[in-house]
Write a structure and sequence with these properties.
Mean pLDDT: 94
Strand order of the largest sheet: 4-1-9-10-11-14-15-16
Structural class: alpha/beta
Helix content: 25-40%
CATH topology: UDP-N-acetylmuramoyl-L-alanine:D-glutamate ligase
Number of domains: 1
CATH superfamily: Ribokinase
Number of helices: 10
Shape: globular
Number of strands: 16
CATH architecture: 3-Layer(aba) Sandwich
Distance between the termini: 33 Å
Radius of gyration: 18 Å
Low-confidence stretches: none
Order of helices and strands: EEEHEEHEEEHEHEHEHEEHEEEHHH
């Protein structure tokens, strides 16, 4: 089948309200800027700006927030005709504070959420088989009917030779029990070619103990997961992926392969303004390199370049770098 899209990103979408008052404690914020967010949505924009053909599969309500999301995505050139309207449900929202260098509290508004209502029928209407990569995310696995729809999409992708990339995207408050994230993720990993996440998300994927998760700065942001990282990496790889790509912020990224090879991708040091969105920018750059046929390390360096650019900016999707911008950024700093 002809591959019509390079990337089909499935799952969460939202309006993101970022604090304009940089450094202010959350109760002291006076105003917010409205952007587009959600892990798969960010990646659809990030990859599109890098020149890839990107489509998004998400759910929105019949509401002004949904129209806000669609207008931005359409203006970016992301294919939105597979976005599902969910009558009686709401497009979701996130409110985010920015307190550099290490405090970025965020609060989700996902009650009666439209994107968690994605169904198997929505997947059947989407171009899974005619995409080169399907991107799914952990939050999409958190509840039904999205959980089954996401697993079905991954099954369909594998059946058609489409690569499946899982953004671990661990958000503790989206799960009735943090251990359920581990159980569900491990069941999904058999369908995944590449998993991407932070060390805490990797440990969450292996999570079996109830008291292993702590959250700082707000009720649902900055989750820290205890446990042995080496064992967690081994558990993720043993479940099936050909590679686990671990993002490490200022330390760059590490690629752990099925053959138990570890490849280090050095960072591009910058002054951090806002870390929110860095992981999705990394994933966008990494996918760019991966789909260009680059080796693991070079693709991860492209991811590091895109992540480094975004951490110097205010938001996520609206601030993703363009292809030449990212290439020039890396080239000016020693290349890939």
């Amino acid at each position: 089948m002809e591959q019509q899209y390079d990337v089909l990103a499935m799952g969460r979408s939202s309006i993101d309200l970022y604090a304009n008052d940089i450094g202010a404690a959350f109760p002291d914020i006076k105003s917010f800027a409205a952007y587009v967010g959600g892990c798969p949505t960010n990646i659809s924009v990030g990859t599109r700006r890098l020149g890839l053909r990107s489509a998004v599969l998400t759910g929105i309500g019949n509401d002004p927030v949904g129209e806000f999301l669609l207008k931005f995505l359409n203006n970016e050139g992301v294919e939105t005709r597979f976005v599902a309207r969910k009558p009686g449900k709401r497009s979701s929202a996130v409110i985010l504070g920015i307190e550099p260098p290490d405090k970025f509290p965020l609060v989700y508004y996902r009650d009666n959420c439209a994107d968690i209502e994605l169904t198997i029928e929505d997947v059947l209407a989407a171009p899974v088989a005619s995409s080169r990569v399907l991107v799914i995310s952990g939050t999409g696995l958190s509840r039904e009917p999205s959980r089954s729809a996401t697993l079905f999409a991954a099954e369909q992708a594998r059946a058609h030779g489409v690569k499946v990339v899982l953004e671990l995207d661990f958000r503790p408050d989206q799960w009735h029990d943090p251990r359920a994230f581990g159980v569900t993720t491990r069941s999904a990993l058999r369908l995944v070619d590449i998993a991407i996440g932070t060390s805490d998300e990797v440990k969450a994927a292996a999570l079996r103990e109830g008291g292993a998760v702590s959250v700082e700065h707000s009720q649902i942001s900055d989750a820290h997961v205890s446990g042995d990282l080496g064992r967690a990496i081994e558990a993720v790889l043993a479940a099936g992926p050909e590679a686990l790509v671990m993002t490490r912020g200022r330390e760059g990224a590490a690629i752990h392969t099925r053959q138990r090879e570890v490849l280090e991708a050095a960072p591009y040091p910058v002054e951090v303004y806002n870390i929110l969105g860095a992981g999705d920018a990394f994933a966008s750059g990494f996918l760019y390199g991966y789909l260009k046929g680059w080796d693991w390390k070079r693709a991860a360096r492209m991811g590091n370049a895109c992540g480094a650019i975004v951490v110097t900016r205010h938001g996520c999707a609206n601030f993703m770098p363009y292809e030449q911008e990212a290439l020039d950024f890396a080239g000016d700093r020693g290349g890939f």
